[in-house]
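Can you make up a protein sequence with its backbone structure tokens?

===
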Amino acid sequence: MRIHGLAGVWVLGLGIVCGSVLAVFIVVGLLRALNDRSFNTVFPSLIGILAICIVIFSPIERILEAMKAERILEGKCEHTVSTAWIVLRKDGTFEYSPAMFLEPKEYEGTFVHKGDSILLSFRNSVPQTSAKMVFRSELGKTYLHGYDSVENVYHDFYLELNKLEK
């Protein structure tokens, strides 16, 4: 899940405040444990350190990404206040997020690659829709151009990764 817009600012601010309070409690707990020579107070500090490590390094997100198929194409389309992105995977699935500022959405589904086109079939959209995207080159760069039939928007994704077989 990705958080964008104003909600992202609030979550970031709340995370900084809570993280700072937790860090202060951890330092105080460790200092108290060292002064008392009692290891009963070290345990809560170790749990706090573990919690901070989980938040900072986000191992759950990395584990989930490792369980998915290899990425063969990644593209982004930057707008004024948001970014649309698409990821195609080796097993024929894709993840797509239109550029929605205050109400971000993510869609998944399957794709078929034929020639210079990619046909996306959205799994979790209502009603069931599909979209066709076409590769085009401009000024030496390759873009994936398409009409988003879910959100009724055109996107030109600049490719950051392209291992798609031609």
